[in-house]
Amino acid sequence: MARLDGKVAIITGAGSGIGRAAARLFAREGAKVGVADVNAQRAEAVAAAITDTGGDAIAIAADVTKAADCERMVNETVKRFGKLDIMYNNAGISPMGLVHEMSEADWRKVIDICLTGVFLGTKYALPHLMKQGGVVLNTASIAGITGQPGLPHYCAAKHGVIGFTKVVALDYAKYKVRAAAICPGAVVTNIGESMGISVDPETTRKLGAALHPLGRACEPEDIANAALFLASDDAAMVSGVILTVDGAWTCGHTFPVPAQ
Ligand SMILES: NC(=O)c1ccc[n+]([C@@H]2O[C@H](COP(=O)([O-])OP(=O)(O)OC[C@H]3O[C@@H](n4cnc5c(N)ncnc54)[C@H](O)[C@@H]3O)[C@@H](O)[C@H]2O)c1
Q1: Any atom of ligand 1 within 6 Å of the Cβ of 12
Q2: CATH number of the domain to which 18 belongs
Q3: Does 15 contact ligand 1 (Cβ within 6 A)?
């Protein structure tokens, strides 16, 4: 039996990177997937790839900063698949900037997508999850547990996601709803587009290899595998957890040990 047989999931930001890898994996493991992204073409391509290979998915064009979009995203999924078990709030951007130069609009944009988007997805999913129990999964970041230079709004949002996740875990435990946040390290995705830096995967791979004590960057599938565990019944007693998938990056600073 596949690990998500009979489950219905929504994944935001599923048109690319981590969300796309999770949508493919969840579908392979038996879930019916609402593939949501602000970029409709990307969402459609991912949903089509899943259905072409025998899975079950629908594409949903949705901007997570808009309450009406999030409500429709949940309603369309429930109408098509009959229920909702897993809400995976994953959409995000990470532009860089310094506080004294940052416009209020730039600040609000990151908070809106990375934090308010998580709130809105959760808000509209919860009434369905509360019916039979379920899971709220949120993509935070190592920027949710450590400061990252040049990312003040992103760090603020991701720290917020972690606090939010813990409260959801507490408030909805009585409905058998679990909540968890994943904190990826450096993942080989297109997120650099929003940072105005190279999206060359080899550059990210080299950076990740240097940053992660395990010696390589994270691939989107590394994060999707962690999400699969948290979304599945294997994690039935795991809630409120903040799971780093960062090759030990945030364990501390490494330094050369002198030869004995
Ligand atoms: N790539 C990394 O190194 C890394 C590290 C830590 C955390 N993360 C987090 O992982 C998540 C996924 O990022 P990724 O690396 O896969 O990036 P990505 O750019 O490959 O994918 C992000 C997706 O989110 C979508 N999106 C952006 N704004 C949206 C909105 N308003 N509504 C709906 N969809 C929207 C984009 O269209 C894109 O398809 C983000 O929350 C990001 O902050 C990424």
Answers
A1: yes
A2: 3.40.50.720
A3: yes
